[in-house]
Amino acid sequence: MAKKTAPDSTRRSEKSRRAIYDAALALVSEVGYQKTTIEGIAARAGVGKQTIYRWWSSKADVLLEAFIDLSAQAAEAAAHPEAIGEQAEYEIPDTGDLEADLKLVLRATVDELLDPKFEAPWRALAAEGMVNQRLGAELVGKLLEPQLQLYVKRLRAAQEQGAVRPDIDPRIALELFVSPLAQRWLQYAGPISYEYALHGLAPR
Questions:
Q1: CA end-to-end span of the chain, whole Å?
Q2: Is residue 200 a contact partner of residue 177, using CB atoms and an 8 Å limit?
């Protein structure tokens, strides 16, 4: 008689966690953040409500973690499309041409902001982060700032190569061409496009 092996609780937990991520992202896109509930996420994921509360304290926390995971997967795919699912660290390319490298990343940013899969959870988290200081701090610390530091690193490398003035603060410089795009998108101030995102990089 074959010996039965005990269920792998780690694998079961990861499967449930992944289902909860997918459910939270899907519901926010379909019904909006306000109508998304822990009960709805649990039903969609096929898990008990207590399972979600075991890992997270609110739907905002679930959505934040799910969105960070989604962003990490997108970064991995962009950096190493042949190794999706494996650990990979995304870096802004350094071809020696700063303008070309920044244009490449800004185009990818526009694509992400216009992708319905990203847009709904992004907007929900940005709005909730304005009234929930803890969530806002986590959103900045875990997602926004690490992404911005990639720009800072590339700009510092350009400074070392003599492509950027040495007296410019890279952190401030990146805000000059990233912030207008983000504000236009968040405030529905107008359509975003490659042309709009890259306007500030055009030679005068």
A1: 79
A2: yes
Angle between helices 170-186 and 145-160 (to 10 degrees): 140
Contact (CB, 8 A) for 197 and 110: yes
Cα(119)–Cα(128) distance, integer angstroms: 14
pLDDT tens by residue, 128-138: 999 999 999 99
pTM of the full structure: 0.78
Q: Are 81 and 74 in contact (CB under 8 A)?
A: no
- Number of C-beta neighbours around residue 122 at 10 A: 21
Copy the structure tokens of residue 64: 């934040």
In CATH, the architecture of 91-201 is: Orthogonal Bundle (1.10)
Nearest residue to 125 via CA among 4, 25, 7, 16? 25
Tens digits of residue pLDDT in 23-78? 999 999 999 999 999 999 999 999 999 999 999 999 999 999 999 999 888 777 65
Q: What letter would DSSP give residue 187?
A: T
Domain ranges of the chain: 91-201
